[in-house]
Amino acid sequence: MNPRSNTVALLLSFIPGLGHLYLKRIFRAFLYGAGFFGPVAMAFLIVVEGHGPKDFAVLLLLFAAACWVVNMVDMFITLGSRPSYPPPGYHEYGNPGHDFGHGPGPGAVPEFNPAVYEWQRREERRKIILASFIPGLGHYMLGMMYRGLSAMTFFIGGAIVIFFGASLTRTGEFLFFLLALPVLWIYILFDAIRQLEKKQAGMELTDRTFFDDFSESRQEGRRSKTIATVLAVFPGAAHLYLGLQMRGLQIMAGFLFSIYIMDVLRLSLFLFLIPIFWFYSFFDALQLISRQEFGYVEDKPIFKGIKRHQRKIGFLIILVGLYYLTNEVLLDVLRRYYPDWHWPYSISSYFQTFIVALVLIGGGLTLLFNSPNRKS
Fold first, then answer.
1. β partners of residue 93
2. 185, 165, 187: which is closest to 176 by C-alpha?
3. 289 close to 229: Cβ distance less than 8 angstroms
4. Percent of the chain scored above 90 by pLDDT?
5. Are 149 and 143 within 8 A, CB to CB?
6. Cα separation values, 107 from 95, 113, 186, Å
7. How far apart are CA 305 and CA 325, in angstroms?
8. SS3 136
């Protein structure tokens, strides 16, 4: 008989009812599937048609979420209590030459079967992976109580703080930080697998928190690659952590200043530069993280020769300040005291187009007349 894979059943369970259907539990598959997709479909119809109270749609979605959670918990309990397949048995008693008088019977001791040991390793790995889907539980099963407690507290506490901050400030943008939780969950999962591999390799496990690992690397004079990689998500932060102050400040200031300028001047045409800037900073940080393992990394600035162009930069900053002062103060005063004048509205609406055209023309003229000298 072809056994059902626990891993496949767990992955299919993320779609309510499908994992139980894979295990041929028809009633539970129908129960969880109907309990999830039924309320979701009803809530969708309420929102699309516009009929019915919105609060009822929210209650339906909450009920569907509760069904999904119960479905996952039921699958975890099922896989944990599911009888495993028996290990391969030992061989019959060996040849008379193997008899050293230590066998359980009058004959020789059983010959060693390596398949038994491999089966035990696979079973332990399966249980740890299943338990690690709940952050910290896999570490508990490995006997690392302190590390598991810190992982569970950090994950659940982070989620509580994010939801509390969103409810306290009444801003949905605060929920953006929930995107960091899957990254943390995956890190905890693979850390439990790494600790299991160390245990199966015969190495001693040290029960300490993740922060103790990071502080140990700092005491040895090395920067933590994990922290640097996480900080690389924000442009310039990883460079500052690696000690590249000039490069990090330039990248961070350039990223934030470009977002501010595009927001103030409403230059939506140049928004494509933001992801380019971010990807450049991220992959540059990853390269520097790799290089710092082999020695000292030089702090090379991104923008060289800023002092030579100090007057041009100052002139541009003055222009931006004058535009902001005119658009936010002067034109607003004119609208308030002279409501019959329509030209302030025209200036405010067409000034963005003027700025974009001026930047494009100025950049083109700079490239045209400052071309490098070609050698004949």
1. 110
2. 165
3. yes
4. 2
5. no
6. 9, 18, 52
7. 30
8. coil
Is the pLDDT at 201 greater than 50? The verdict is yes
Which residues have CB under 8 Å from 88's CB, separation 6+? 113, 115, 116, 119
SS3 call for 271: coil
Those residues with Cβ within 8 angstroms of residue 222's Cβ, 6 or more apart along the chain or in another chain: 292, 293
110 against 313, higher pLDDT: 313
Q: Is the pLDDT of residue 100 over 60?
A: no
Largest interatomic CA distance in the chain: 114
Among the listed residues 108, 113, 116, 106, the one whose alpha carbon sits nearest the alpha carbon of residue 91: 113
State both tokens at 362. 């100025």
Query: What is the C-alpha separation between 305 and 268, in angstroms, rounded?
Result: 29
Torsion of CA 236, 239, 244, 247, to 10 degrees: -30
| Bridge partner list, 110 | 93
pTM of the shown model: 0.52
What is the distance between the alpha carbons of residues 14 and 76, in angstroms, rounded to a whole number? 12
